[in-house]
Specification:
677 residues; mainly alpha
């Protein structure tokens, strides 16, 4: 049985099955339709046909947003508009992902600053001018009203999350010999263990102690001492030695299970894993029972308590067996914590994770997005990718549901799944995932940062696997309404255009590059110039390419900021594009830059420039090119001179000029040889 295999034979899922609640008497209230006539009732009584019973709900409850949701369903997304959160001030409309993140963080920072002002200076907000006065929309009253040394005053400060004031008042009450109830002391422990001796703030919602594991190798760790040892703290000390929580816990005259569980969860939250395990041992020695939340925290802390993969799984099984012995019914977060631990158990995690999913099904616990996220991480992270069967089965379930948040890791699923689709290079799975993301309210799990990562990976996969017309259609609909392309996305798009032989689209892509603020990215400029200058195009396209080259030249010569450094390849590409567009003077100016920055043009650039001079029948430009090759001591000097003499109609003066260039070149070569001798 999967349950016994999962917990080493001691698992008893029957103890964990949830009891179904029912109305008194075990039956549901039923109502008959009262609109039938007396004649119909008599006919129904005399006939053998049983009248169907209709169950009427007592009350129909509508969602407060039902009207807005209905109106929103009639409006399609505008692909040319940015995210709605950025439309308050068009002047500050972000241009790329970095700016959008800065904008969203600035808005949130402004909200937090307003809450801080209201909390710290409540005396300036004691007057109400609203008519009518809606109390739920008014600022909370955060000033303590109870003065003096009393347990009620302590309760009030705990309720207001005033950490320092609560600890000071507790110490004063203890020194005065005032007895405190166990419930009040436990409430103070709850406050201290949650905030970790730091001053609380009402807007602090995100837990600081989220156990984010670093990237670790899937091979077995053999070193006894690693960066994450037993009880180590990878992000620096967060649980101070003998802090107020520990001090109060030690001096408590009476402790119950709530006291121990609070300390364990607080220590795990603030990364004191070894201490949390020791307190759990004390809890068992005192014959108390831990609750399900405490076991969830301990299971999540297993990777930080043991080094080897098998040891981690054995310790997790110990906690699971203790839950069975103490008759603690697991919940969804229990299995999610177990799967999160299996993510860091190497091959053991792959062999046991599917059994965990089967056990959830046996206990009728419906998985959340975090469950699937951990599962995909186990099988699709690393060098050896599992076949697409598991992710396909996961999508079969996700497509049918509209999820609600149940675990903090729920928000990671869609980006993890899209990364798996990219690693598998499976565009069909990506389409299915995208359809599931748009189902119901699933899209709400993607915040601004994750939304951009999700669509960025999706677009890279499209560029790799789809036809160019499909790629361009998605690109037009996605940017900037859904995401801001990254430099890698632009490179992927350029490679897709190159593979489809549609380089004439590059000028429009370049406009987007400027809009995104990537016109100073060297790798993008090199790729753009290389594609535009690789071969000859129609005159209209060459003129557009020359306009792009002019913008790139301006980016290198801008005076408002540090100019970009010219490279030989960049100079050559820009010179080619100018020459092919008939902008001879601009092209020659770029050729002269080679001598100024001590760079050597390639043979392709020299030959193409000579061809452009031939098309315009400009022997003077050809002679200038030969003179430049001589000045740079290029090996192609003789070839360019011979081509100039053969392909151009030169005057006697121009031939003499070529001869002088050759003699000067020979003399300079002999001088350099004598210097070397």
């Amino acid at each position: 049985m999967a349950a016994r295999r999962l917990a080493g034979g001691s698992w008893q899922p029957a103890l964990w099955l949830s009891r179904r609640c029912c109305l008194p008497g075990g039956t549901r209230e039923r109502y008959r339709c009262s609109s039938s006539s007396t004649a119909l009732e008599k006919a129904a009584d005399t006939s053998e046909v049983t009248q169907e019973e209709i169950v009427l709900p007592r009350k129909k409850t509508w969602d407060k947003l039902a009207v807005l949701q209905t109106l929103a369903s009639t409006v399609n997304r505008d692909p040319t508009a940015a995210h709605y959160m950025f439309q308050d001030d068009p002047f500050l409309m972000p241009r790329n992902a970095a700016n959008s993140r800065l904008f969203s963080l600035s808005k949130e920072s402004g909200r937090n600053a307003a809450k801080y002002i209201i909390k710290q200076f409540p005396q300036y907000f004691d007057k109400t001018f609203a008519e009518p006065n809606v109390s739920c929309l008014m600022p909370e009253f955060l000033t303590p009203q109870i003065e003096g040394l009393s347990e009620e005053a302590l309760k009030e400060r705990i309720h207001l999350r005033m950490v320092k004031e609560s600890v000071d008042l507790f110490d004063q009450l203890v020194q005065a010999g005032t007895p405190l109830s166990l419930e009040t002391t436990n409430s103070l422990l709850d406050l201290l263990c949650f905030y970790g001796d730091e001053e609380a703030s009402l807007e602090k919602e995100e837990e600081k102690g989220d156990l984010e594991e670093p990237e670790v190798d899937t091979s077995e760790q053999k070193a006894p001492k690693r960066q994450l040892q037993r009880g180590s703290q990878s992000s620096g000390p967060r649980w101070r030695e003998n802090n107020n929580a520990e001090r109060i816990f030690k001096i408590m005259p009476e402790k119950n299970a709530h006291s121990y569980c609070t300390m364990i969860r607080g220590m795990v939250k603030h990364r004191a894993f070894a201490k949390a395990y020791d307190v759990y041992i004390d809890l068992m020695n005192e014959r108390h029972k831990a609750d399900v939340h405490t076991f969830n925290a301990l299971i999540a802390a297993v990777p930080y308590l043991k080094d080897r993969f098998l040891e981690r799984w054995e310790l997790a099984k110990v906690f699971l067996n203790h839950m069975v012995q103490q008759e603690v019914q697991p919940n969804l977060l229990t299995f999610n914590a177990l799967l999160k631990t299996l993510r860091r158990c190497g091959g053991v995690g792959k062999s046991m994770s599917l059994l965990v999913i089967k056990e959830m099904e046996a206990l009728d616990i419906e998985p959340s997005l975090a469950t699937y996220d951990h599962l995909l991480y186990i099988f699709y992270r690393g060098v050896d990718l599992y076949p697409s069967g598991i992710i396909s089965e996961v999508l079969d379930d996700v497509e049918k549901r509209s999820f609600t948040p149940q675990d903090p890791d729920d928000a990671k699923f869609f980006t993890t799944a899209m990364q798996a689709c990219c690693d598998l290079k499976d565009i069909k799975l990506a389409y299915r995932l995208n359809k599931a993301m748009e189902n119901g309210d699933n899209w709400k799990f993607l915040d601004v940062d994750r939304l951009n990562v999700y669509w960025s990976k999706f677009f890279s996969l499209l560029c790799m696997m789809e036809q160019i017309d499909v790629v361009l259609k998605w690109y037009k609909e996605m940017s900037p309404s859904l995401f801001y392309p990254t430099p890698k996305n632009i490179l992927d798009l350029l490679q897709a255009l190159d593979a489809a032989n549609q380089l004439e689209v590059i000028p429009s892509v370049w406009e987007d590059v400027k809009q995104l603020g990537f016109q100073r990215r060297h790798e993008l400029l090199e790729e753009l110039l290389s594609l535009m200058s690789r071969e000859q195009h129609p005159d209209e396209v060459q003129l557009a390419f020359a306009k792009c080259a002019e913008d790139i030249k301006a980016a290198h010569e801008t005076t408002g900021q540090t100019p970009l450094e010219w490279t030989g390849s960049t100079l050559g590409h820009v010179a080619l594009l100018f020459a092919r567009a008939g902008r001879t003077q601009d092209a020659w100016n770029m050729m002269e830059r080679f001598q100024q920055i001590n760079r050597i043009p390639t043979d392709q650039v020299l030959d193409e420039f000579l061809n452009c001079a031939k098309r315009t029948n400009s022997p003077e430009e050809a002679i200038k090119l030969v003179k430049l090759a001589a000045a740079l001591s290029l090996s192609s000097f003789q070839r360019l001179k011979s081509r100039t003499e053969e392909e151009f109609e030169l005057s006697e003066e121009q031939r003499k000029t070529l001869e002088r260039i050759e003699s000067d070149s020979d003399s300079s070569d002999s001088d350099s040889d004598s210097d070397r001798e």
